[in-house]
Write a structure and sequence with these properties.
The complex is a heterodimer of chains A (370) and B (550). Chain A has 370 residues and is an alpha+beta fold. Chain A has 11 helices and 10 strands. Chain A folds into 3 domains: 2-68 and 81-110, no CATH class; 118-146 and 164-264, Cupredoxins -  blue copper proteins (Immunoglobulin-like, Sandwich), CATH 2.60.40.420; 274-369, Cytochrome Bc1 Complex, Chain D, domain 2 (Orthogonal Bundle). Helices cover 66% and strands 0% of the residues of chain B. Chain B starts with 30 loop residues before the first helix and ends with a helix. Classes of the chains: A alpha+beta (370), B mainly alpha (550). Chains A and B meet through helix 3, helix 4, strand 7, strand 8 and strand 9 of A and helix 3, helix 6, helix 9, helix 10 and helix 11 of B. Chain B: Residues 26-538 form the Cytochrome oxidase subunit I profile domain.
Chain lengths: 370, 550
Amino acid sequence: MRFSRACALAAFLPACSFATIDGRYNFQTPQTLIAHDINNLHAWIMGVIAVIFVAVFGVMFYSIFKHRKSSGHSARHFHENTTVEILWTLIPALILVVMAWPAAKVVLAQKDTRDAEVTIKATGYQWFWGYDYLDYGFGYKSKLATPRDQIENYKDKGQAKGEHYLLEVTEPLVVPVGTKVRVLTTSNDVIHSWGMPAFGVKQDAIPGFIRDTWFKADRVGTFRGQCVELCGRDHGFMPIVISVVSKDDFKTWVDKKQKDAKAAADDPNKVWKLDEMIARGKTVYDANCAACHKADGAGGGPFPALAGSKIANGPIAGHLDIVLHGKGAMPSWQGLSDTEIAAVITYERHSFGNKMTDMLQPKDVKAARK
Amino acid sequence: MSTTANPTIDLGAGHHDHAHDHDHDHHTLTGWRRWVYATNHKDIGTLYLWFSFAMFITGGLMALGIRAELFTPGLQFWQPEFFNQLTTLHGVIMVFGAIMPAFTGLANWMLPLMLGAPDMAFARMNNWSFWLLPPAALLLIISLFVPGGAAAGGWTLYPPLSLQFGMGMDLAIFAIHLLGISSIMGSINIITTILNMRAPGMTLMKMPMFAWTALITNYLLVAVAPVLAGAVTMLLTDRHFGTHFFKAVGGGDPVLFQHIFWFFGHPEVYIMALPAFGVVSQIIPTFARKPLFGYHSMVYATASIAILSFMVWAHHMFSVGMPATAQLFFMFMTMLIAVPTGVKVFNWIATMWQGSMSFETPMLFAVGFVCLFTVGGFSGLVLSIAPVDTQMHDTYYVVAHFHYVLVAGALFSLFGAVYYWLPKWTGNMYSERAGKFHFWWSMVWFNVTFFPMHFLGLAGMPRRIPDYPLQFTDFNAIASVGAFCFGLGQLFFLYNVIHTIRGGVGKAPANPWDSPTLEWEVPSPAPHHTWETPPDEALVKKGLAAQALE
């Protein structure tokens, strides 16, 4: 590939000068072998294209300047030549072969997800990412950390934007350096796409299906990307941030996360009091439901209001059913724990002006799941 | 030579039971009836062209809405929901409302004239295929104002996202049904006309290239329009009738939609590109004063592109997670399309080579087309390399790529076609200075708008986002300025056309460009009825000889 890179650089000077400015005119600085391969492949192809470009347009513009009526050139009436037709079919075909060969090798490398040391499940939600460390038994959600005030400029209200505007999250994905990490992608609602430009990975997250990709980061650092498949209203606001740490730091971090997870786990047999259930439900609601139904339960657009809704003020079994199984635009929320579902339903029935008196316990949800 | 003075009246045809009032005036309805009851190919062609211009302006305003929001980071004008509706409707309206009807309009106006036919094969169906378009457009516009707003899933309408929207999505589905029915009927009409109504002596391999590209395009359309109709109908039943084609919860597969959509969608790309090739293949020989180089290989290249277009659809889905074999197959097939496309570009250049070129507005647009379409072709080649596509999929690089082939490709060829045939349509010459200004203005601002998007895409800016991280700011600002200037220039195009209709810079001769194809044998403006008797074989052969086809 060295020869091809030399060609590329020599032939495509503009690309060469752009390449020196990171992440603005060209790909982000590659951090994995695959990303390096992709950069080289791109440079090689741009080199070939530049040569063809100069040759083809050179001929065309020569003709445009020389073979003009205004400069007295009279037309010659040739109109067919089988030999040149065959040549300009075969030569491009051969050029394609030399492009396809290195590309095919990279495709095969990209698809080889065997022998990963760490496996992480990335789940797309409208509109944030969830990461589950399948080997270590914990997981968390990674949401946009940029404050809404920085985003909304309506009526000159926008605040100054921070350095990592729209590329900062509450908790990044943490991975060890120099380790093959396999990422399984799936989704809770619509298709999202999980990717990291510096790593040369991009994989759609498809509801109901698991797809996979992999990367092995070369060095420690923080890397930033975004969801790259239109997934609805806040598609532009669900970044992906990966923090690559040393293997030791990773181990320390995993230990801590495992302890936290144990401490935070709800006891599924606990019997909750109404007011603590409502308080718990509010946190679940704000994290999962408020994006559509709004924090005050007023809904909007295709998303119905919960304030005064027939379901939130009707039989509790029906309310539980729709949260568990979804309907229309409402997704199924089976991914929440029994406690979370019981809490959020209880909260909805006692808030937004809804004045129900009943409540759910985790065991009721457990029974309804069967 | 004019038709009304055609010395070969009714030889052998003998069907005229109203030969006495042969000046046709009595068939011509006036006022609104002329247009609503239109069965004349020229009237219907005119309707198509004006409709597509109206849609071009509508879709263009939406594009400006998008660019206004993206001028600076942060949300200024629109809520993200509405921004997504703008991108969706912009795409649907430009593809189905502007580009496709414009080419059908051109085919309507020009094919009978170029082939020596009196009209299209099915005159009444022709009326119906046009008049389905305005209701479809209306459904799309109305959808902006229904509860929940218009469809907001991008023009690709991927489920499960498209299952979430309100009734705006249903209106879009019905609009697509109507547009599809219109396209299928229009295609059947064009295919039948080309196959059955050519002048004596004009065999298939002697037709003008524009007719060839129209023939192949419309075969593609008949093949894939029903596929799209099926896909959106499945969306409709998933939305309302409890089916699970695309819902994993019921055993369906969201990716199935993408396969079906792109099985339509990729040929669709060529449905918008091939007629542009046809137009350019008419214009370049005329202004190079030299026959089209490699006519036969041009025909074969067009057919090869059409056939290959059915075997490359999944290159739109490289990030969906296909097996390596599928990834490789679609990568190789896609790269292969570069071969026949290259053949076309080489033949155009060989046509220019050693010609005696002059650069009136149609030629400028044709050369502009060749340059920028080639740039779009190169970026397409880059995107076809599956690993590189990993970085570029769903970024602004893709946006740049398809605007190079659809705006600088299809749209520029349409502008070229309008300036080329405007003298025939109106009987007046357009102002060359104004036309050239329109070209250079469009050329400059087009590139200012879309070239920076390549860099945005390389740097990783995703498509279809209403707000972006700060490192993308300067290129977005440049693109927005370019877009507004480009848009403004198109009002100047409207002015040019109206100015020409109202007299332009003088009367046009029958054959202002000294071109050998048959449409220039009728007077300018073309009378309401032309070629009521087929052109006689000697006339056809004279034209074919000048095109080096005889």
